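Q&A log
Question type: sequence-to-structure
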Amino acid sequence: MKKRYAEVSEVIRLVGFNRMNGSEEVVDYYLVHPKWGREYAFTRKYTRATYELVKGGISVKRLLQIRSKDKMTMMLVKYTRLMLPYFSEEIEWFSEAA
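Response status: OK
Response body:
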């Protein structure tokens, strides 16, 4: 069976930081590895559900397995899955950690 997304280590976490961007609230997402530090991933519009999910950090592997009726949560999962190939090419430690 073909995998739909790249293999991701359990230790890589997605962490969100809330900030204001002009008049709207956004969340900056970072990929965090305990050994190699953090790397900027992307910025998305703030929603309470997604921010509560990532403010303490969530394993990327676990995030990709989430199924929810919340539209914004599923958009975050979809966007993270879309960005995985980019992360593995651009962030040196991302593919080495898997």
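Response note: The chain has one domain: 13-93.
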